[in-house]
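[Q] Does anyone have a clean structure-token version of this?
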Amino acid sequence: MTEQNLNEVLKVRREKLQRLRDEGNDPYLITKFDVTAYAKDINEKFDEYEDKSVSVAGRIMAKRGQGKVGFYDLLDSTDRIQLFLKKDLVENYNQIKKCDIGDIVGVKGEVFKTKMGQISIRVLEITLLSKSLQVLPEKYHGLKDMDLRYRQRYVDLIVNPEVRDVFKTRSRIITEIRAFLDERGFLEVETPVLNNLAGGANARPFITHHNALDIPMYLRIALELPLKRLIVGGFDKVYEISRVFRNEGMDATHNPEFTLLETYEAYADYNDVMDMVEALYDRLANTIKGTTDIEFDGHAISLAAPFKRARMVDLVTEHTGVNFDAITDVDEARVKAEALGVDVEDLHSVGEIIAEVFDATVEDKLIQPTFVTMHPVEISPLAKKSPEDPRYTERFELYIAGAECANAFSELNDPIDQKERFMAQVAKKEEGDDEAHPYDADFINALEVGLPPTGGLGIGIDRLVMILTGQHSIRDVILFPTMKPQD
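[A] Here you go.
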């Protein structure tokens, strides 16, 4: 449709609305409509609805027929259903025939099948509830422009029903996660979005200003530190599912705001958390997909427990042939990494170099679920050191299809060790590292009060939904992804 034609159509729609108002039929004055049935139920349980009176409401998506008979396709929140309109059955037939595709109507009628076997509603009464003044994308071409789909998600949901299915599945996943944790005795809590410090992760925060207190404040980058304070306070098992915000890059797996699940369990360690994560993924796959065998990005992936477990440094050795576990000199580690084509010029410890080599050479090769354990202490400021080797921490990240899907550790509860690591992070921040962890004096005080041995977990809900719905961009599982403003 040309711009001129579009403008003419929009003009005609506004003129129709004005005529309705002049006739005393302003649809926007209607405040409610009683709905007694939904399209999906009628279509799937026709025998229960046949010849029964129903009241449905939704959007007109197609119009067929002429003269004294018309067929409309009505889309409600569940499915499409055909409307059969006959002039001698509908009092305001001539008025309704002037409805446009996109208009929202309320219908009362009887359920039946046409001679062609199409489940339909024989319309006895129809009311225009809202006039669509815009034009929906054409039926067969749909809304294909991805940028426009994300900006106008409301239109995307109307014309691409499979998109609504993704977000219905997302809701089911979150509901199932809550049920899983509730059954295990976890308590769901809420913690502040605005904080004086941006702690709990290494990330660049969003900064705002509190006018009444005249202080800078930070949108949270993680849920961790308040939740661990609750463990100090005597709760044994807590969790939160909430939005967090990181002022960083955007790509297929990163959005500046995303949904995070964090759990903390007293008297447990990271091995217990691994067991729980396996059980959670296994349950979600069976509940949502009906099987633990899924397909993602061309790979057949099994989400059945147990998952592979391997130390980060051993995976680096497996994929590069270089045993960084035997290297203690940072200059030697730097030479080995650069020989692998990995840029580590700005890194100043063997642990940081191991992590960078892992990211560059191993991460995208971990297709089947894999717990990558024993992360270097330099990149894990909140994790407990391994008793077997203090260079590493009791931490794991879960990788599936080459992407990180969970992060967890045996929580550091030694206030002296935690203070030293915070100070090391402060030194990195002073050297220009915007993502280094700030010093949190109150959290140190909480640890001095006493944090029991605790296993903590973080799972990015968006990436989990991507895997279980087969989506390859995080924007396809976030209803309103962050977009650059249009001119």
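[Q] Thanks! Anything notable?
[A] The longest strand covers residues 53-64.
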